[in-house]
Write a structure and sequence with these properties.
By secondary structure, this protein is mostly helical. It has one domain. It contains 5 helices and no strands. α1 packs antiparallel against α3 and α3 packs antiparallel against α4. The longest helix is centred in the N-terminal third of the chain and has 26 residues. The radius of gyration is 17 Å and the shape is flat.
């Protein structure tokens, strides 16, 4: 029961996070009467955009879904969304000039390895039972 509550809260939080960012992006279109509030928060939102910290948070939620969710559709949807966002972050490679800048992808690699481990454990437990 405890895992279910954590899973529901994390799913709602990540969906709200992405919805808020998309709403902010839509409301702050240039020439559309950008408000002072939107302009003031634009620097802050640039730091937590869905393709930096948001991608890692979505990866953690995807791992929680892989671990605790019983519905296969939810597990697949959240993991595919994470993979799409992680692939979109690869665009950042174009502007990188040093090899150590690629360290921003280490969390993605860790999340992918953990996902493979979780899926293999789930398959092993189905085969044994």
């Amino acid at each position: 029961m405890k895992h279910r509550k954590i899973l529901i809260m994390s799913n709602v939080a990540i969906i709200a996070y992405y919805a808020a960012f998309l709403l902010w992006a839509e409301l702050s279109q240039p020439g559309e009467g950008e408000t002072v509030v939107m302009h003031a928060y634009s620097g802050f939102l640039a730091l937590i955009n869905p393709f930096t910290i948001g991608a890692y948070l979505l990866g953690i939620v995807a791992l929680l879904n892989l671990k605790y969710c019983r519905r296969k559709a939810y597990r697949i949807i959240f993991f595919l969304l994470y993979c799409i966002v992680a692939a979109c972050t690869l665009v950042a490679v174009m502007g990188m000039t040093h090899w150590w800048e690629l360290l921003m992808y280490v969390p993605h690699l860790i999340i992918l390895v953990l996902a493979m481990i979780l899926v293999s454990h789930r398959i092993d437990s189905k085969v044994k039972s």
